[in-house]
Amino acid sequence: MFRDRQMSSSATSRVAVIGLGSMGYGMATSLRRAGFEVTGCDVTADAVARFVADGGKGAKSPAEAARDADIVVSVVVNAAQTEAILFGKDGVAETLAKDAVFISSATMDPDIARRLAKQLEATGRHYLDAPISGGAQRAAQGELTILASGGAAAFAKARPALDAMAAKLYELGDAAGQGAAFKMINQLLAGVHIAAASEAIAFAAKQGLDIRKVYEVITASAGNSWMFENRMPHVLDGDYAPRSAVEIFVKDLGIIQDMARNARFPVPVSAAALQMFLMTAAAGMGRDDDASVARMYAQVTGTKLPGDK
Amino acid sequence: MFRDRQMSSSATSRVAVIGLGSMGYGMATSLRRAGFEVTGCDVTADAVARFVADGGKGAKSPAEAARDADIVVSVVVNAAQTEAILFGKDGVAETLAKDAVFISSATMDPDIARRLAKQLEATGRHYLDAPISGGAQRAAQGELTILASGGAAAFAKARPALDAMAAKLYELGDAAGQGAAFKMINQLLAGVHIAAASEAIAFAAKQGLDIRKVYEVITASAGNSWMFENRMPHVLDGDYAPRSAVEIFVKDLGIIQDMARNARFPVPVSAAALQMFLMTAAAGMGRDDDASVARMYAQVTGTKLPGDK
């Protein structure tokens, strides 16, 4: 089901990385470390300049970055940005070689992933649906988890780059959309767990419990989740500098609602969780760390949490 | 914060265990193994007969079991049963020695735990608020987690029995109610996580994903929870024989709603989860395994899960 990372056998391939944010920069760095010739591109000129100063190559547009590339790795936030990179003005579809592969890592509705793949494949290029998870540090170490699906040719073309970026590569199906669907199931759970952790820890504080003891007890008990364990230290420290922002789950739980409504499948638990992220964004914390949902509960209810003035 | 189990230094103490269900029977067995003289009592005569056949002593009522006991361990489902065992007809308060300790393990509203403690302490006995977690197997092995709070005298009296029953003993405060409050926070999270896991896996099945692959991916990803990992195998196997029943979370998330409403603290995520347990109970699965929430989602939406005819 997954492959250990291995040295690439096509270390001279040329890769374009579109999007040099915290994830994309680390992925581009991992690709360079594995021996690829990497051209970076970003809407922020500073990010490109930094990448060039580190020894990479820079490009002014996706089209320019993709010229002569065998592999394009797209590391942007959503479906709209992915579509613009592919088919917008100065998009990669203008220049990308026939038989090259476009690796899309944005989290999106599986239906849109299928549509983008179909549209690109009609032009003779390959599309790999490959959402990522693992955070900036693991991106920089080449130790992401990648949830990939696509045709055999797309996998074959992409594999050396995937091996350079991922510690775990799940191969989840032979068409675009499957990777996206697995990622959305993960995001449903992750979002609910952050909202539940926030509800629980703020309610515990309201009852006068020592929330450091709550953290100790819960992480050793059946109520634990990966997100409780990972995010609640931000609440204990009163530190809401964004590692991952509230707006990410406004987006991802929103996609879940759209998918579920289209499928006539009720998802009331994740619908409630989405409202809590929305309420947190509405209170002005959309760009803060997603553990800010706990701060929103505390503010609404007049409950004191660490870091309050 | 917690003590490793150690051999009791008062191995000749007499303990009454009220409630010989799957948890109580195991706890009574662990106490006997540690050298206590244990008298068991249960509303089901068969359970008492089995305990006597195993070498324990039996009693016909809580009052009879508690006569001459130094420690009473109450292992029943809720606050109402606990109150009946304490103060009802043939309750332990009729016979229990002055200075003995009553260890209450039922999950209940902290306000009720405080009231019962106050009422018993007024008669010269000690009350230890000591909810448990860990399941039947760990009960039988003397490896429960116990979330305890109470006065110093209650802890001193109870400690040999706690050491015999628990692998982890959390000492969470010097008055009844704190243990109950920590347990309720755990139950809030546990209940939401079961409902979210059920929503996610049924939605994944609806999208045509291989739910065994979903299990493999999620348990290695940020969407994981203790409950997802523990309960979803029941869905994969189509096996809803009750390890823990839907009705337990109807009760526990109901207590959360009562506590939160009294505290004027909104808990929308756990409120949504409670509705899913209620819906599952309404569909006739209240006594089935709590992973039946996934079956409810599947039935409502016409989604096929393993084990369906």
From TrEMBL, chains A, B:
Active-site residues annotated for this sequence: 183
Reaction it catalyzes: L-threonate + NAD(+) = 2-dehydro-L-erythronate + NADH + H(+)
GO terms of biological process kind: organic acid catabolic process
Residue span(s) of domain 6-phosphogluconate dehydrogenase NADP-binding: 14-172
Domain 3-hydroxyisobutyrate dehydrogenase-like NAD-binding, residue spans: 177-297
Enzyme superclass (EC): oxidoreductase
Gene3D superfamilies for this protein: N-(1-d-carboxylethyl)-l-norvaline Dehydrogenase, domain 2, NAD(P)-binding Rossmann-like Domain
Domain of life (superkingdom): Bacteria
The entry's keywords: Carbohydrate metabolism, NAD, NADP, Oxidoreductase
SUPFAM superfamilies: 6-phosphogluconate dehydrogenase C-terminal domain-like, NAD(P)-binding Rossmann-fold domains
Annotated EC: 1.1.1.411
GO MF assignments: NAD binding; NADP binding; oxidoreductase activity, acting on the CH-OH group of donors, NAD or NADP as acceptor
Keyword NAD recorded: yes
Family: Belongs to the HIBADH-related family. L-threonate dehydrogenase subfamily.
Known role: Catalyzes oxidation of L-threonate to 2-oxo-tetronate. Can use either NAD(+) or NADP(+) as cosubstrate, with a preference for NAD(+).
Protein name: L-threonate dehydrogenase
